[in-house]
## 1
Amino acid sequence: MKKHILCLICILAPLFSHAQMLKLNKGDFEIAGSATVNSNTIGFETRFGAFVADYIQTGINAKWADTNFGTRAAFNLYMINLFETRTYFIPYAGASIGFGSLDYDFGGSESGVEFQLIGGVKYYFADNVSLNTELTIGISSGETFQGNNEMDDTEIALRVGLGFLW
């Protein structure tokens, strides 16, 4: 049993301790896509950003989702700070602000200004390709989110996707 644990540690240790050659520099660009994962929504999100300083990214974020009540769309501006870890796992935190709308299947619509806190981890499995896992907490001036089978002005969502850096 001890031999198996030692072998597992030897295999996994480079993933966590390897000093990366990757550097997220001012002037780099990244495009990412992700899926919304929660019980009431099937949707996707695309993000295009530029690094305005080393490890600081800003850009635009477009979302579309089909919910139990209708179709949701949002367009946000975001800024995130990525924390240099010297590994291939790079945590980040930031915020976004934008406009969202929900067009109801039964007629009518709701729209509002949205603010979201963003936190996540990027894992670069190649020098320019990352697997992204992100948790967002959002609030809106209108009921543009869906939660607990009703329209809501708040949202907590988990997103998983891929990013490409150049």
## 2
Amino acid sequence: MPTPTPTPENADIQRKCEEFLRALQIPGFIVFGWQKSDQQFGVVSSFHEMPVNAAVKGMTWALNDFVAKSL
């Protein structure tokens, strides 16, 4: 029987998101969600040289877009 792949921890995903943003070498932000197990989900966010007001505006747009497409 195969060994199940370990579920990534929030800290691991957070670190990878931060590394990704630094590698892009541009200001940006990520809100990332993933399925941990059958009924569990994880969410992390990461900001890199992004003004708070711009990140809030972007997250607001993304949330509105997600809700509009989901309903």
## 3
Amino acid sequence: MAATCEWREHDGVRYLFLCPAGSGREQLAELVRDLSVLLREEPPGLVRLLIDLRPLGRYVPAPGELAEYKRIQHGLLQTHTLRAGLVGVTGLNAAVMRGMSAMSGRITLLGVPTLERGIEFVARDAH
């Protein structure tokens, strides 16, 4: 199964949908690279993302991996703001995401249990 990284639309709201191909470091790294490529093509401003992390299962990136992903995205976050619904991120992990969101100022993250709730979140305030 290949990773999904494509633009979709819901009720006139365009968003980028990402879903890793499986559970592990390589799948998450591939998704981050794909996201980086697609964001470079976008004009500055708000980008809406829906990321289905359920295929990753219980995989948790090591701190070094997170630092690398942050480095890859750093330049993009100077020109873009992100609103991202993270499907499958609940409980304590969702609280961590909210904290990361509050500290960044350029990324709004929300852990959601379902794709439907994620779409609601990314489309909020669009009209």
## 4
Amino acid sequence: MRQPHLFLVLPAMIPAPALLAGAARAADAAACYAISDADARTACLAKARRDPGMCYAVLQADRRAQCLAETRAG
């Protein structure tokens, strides 16, 4: 018996609000790439993706601490 393709089944398994939230995060992350300062761009991406691990790539200690605090809190 032939298996259905994953890409046909996957959208049915993800609730609509989750798809919208993912699209909003992607739009936020896309805006971060316009920031020329590397530390600010990395912090922006960490917040948009809700990934505190990315904050460790921020070189300035004070900005890194702020990134970690903002990413973990929200």
